[in-house]
Specification:
This protein has helices at residues 5-8, 14-20, 38-44, 49-70, 89-112, 128-140, 157-169, 181-186, 233-244; strands at 30-34, 74-81, 116-120, 148-155, 198-201, 220-223. The protein is α/β, with parallel strands linked by helices. The chain folds into 2 domains: 27-146 and 196-203 and 224-245, Decaprenyl diphosphate synthase-like (Undecaprenyl pyrophosphate synthetase), CATH 3.40.1180; 156-193. A 6-stranded parallel sheet has the order 3-4-2-1-5-6, with helices on both faces. Helix 6 links the parallel strand 3 (116-120) and strand 4 (148-155). Helix 2 runs parallel beside helix 9, helix 3 crosses helix 4 and helix 5 (89-112) runs parallel beside helix 6 (128-140). The chain starts with a helix and ends in a 14-residue tail after the last helix.
């Protein structure tokens, strides 16, 4: 991966022109992505659904690379929900196979580019070989202090909140009167990582699909009709530009209306 931004976002290309419009001092610290549309992408091409997931792997690489080049601190990818376990066994098995392939093929790339990998969700529900490979790469990249990529696996927002409550009340020092939002947030899978500033959803669906329910209370949401396997760095830059045009008031009012 080239470390030169101008080389990655080449001048004169659409990506280069979009990059020139960005204010690098006002980028979101944390971007979350609902990667949706793999199945529809495959259906439009009369291909098996698993081919959509395979094609979507390239989009993951594009977004990770773009985030690293831009200096974004956190990128959370909704890779596998707890509801996804209900899909056909062959499709589920293929998804896990693709994840293992990605980890094995990109572990050195992550280390060389100072990218740290973490995971959120119920890790105990993952197949043993997937969990072992994931833990290997998480351990391998633990010293990286650039981009942190959080993969949401066997993840559900409601489950996360329930698990946080269980974790909290089991603590020997639990005191209900001292409980506040900050302490509760520390019990979530995301721990002390910042809440997302921007949530991107591909495929045009207008829902959040049980993703980061607590964390996205004031997150800006950007939805594109582009199906995930067709999502590229240009779309990512479009989302960032739109984000920078938003007036984030967090429940207050802007300066002009005071």
């Amino acid at each position: 991966m080239s470390t030169d931004r101008t080389d990655y976002f080449k001048a004169g290309t659409r990506a280069g022109l979009l990059f020139e419009r960005l204010d690098l001092c006002r980028l979101p610290a944390h971007v979350a992505v609902i990667m949706d549309g793999n199945g529809r992408w495959a259906k439009k091409r009369n291909k098996p659904r698993v081919e959509g997931h395979r094609a979507g792997s390239k989009s993951v690489r594009e977004v990770v690379e773009a985030s690293a080049h831009l200096g974004i601190r956190y990128l959370t990818l909704y890779a596998f929900s707890r509801e996804n376990w209900q899909r056909p066994q062959f499709e589920v098995s293929t998804l896990w196979k693709l994840l293992v392939e990605y980890l094995r093929n990109n572990d050195k790339v992550l280390v060389d580019n100072n990218i740290r990998l973490t995971a959120i969700g119920r890790m105990e529900e993952l197949p043993d070989n997937v969990r072992e490979e994931l833990e290997r790469v998480i351990h391998l990249t633990r010293g990286s202090d650039g981009l942190t990529v959080q993969m949401a696996l066997s993840y559900g927002g409601r489950t996360e909140i329930v698990d946080a409550v269980k974790k909290l009340v089991r603590r020997s020092d639990f005191d209900v009167d001292s409980l506040d939002e900050e302490r509760f947030a520390e019990m979530l899978y995301t721990g002390k990582s910042p809440d997302p500033d921007l949530l991107i959803r591909s495929s045009g669906e207008m829902r959040i699909s049980n993703f980061l329910l607590w964390q996205i209370a004031y997150t800006e949401i950007w939805i594109t009709s582009v199906l995930w396997p067709d999502f590229r760095r240009e779309h990512f830059l479009e989302a960032l530009i739109d984000y920078q045009n938003r007036d984030r008031r967090f429940g207050g009012i802007d300066a002009q209306n005071r």
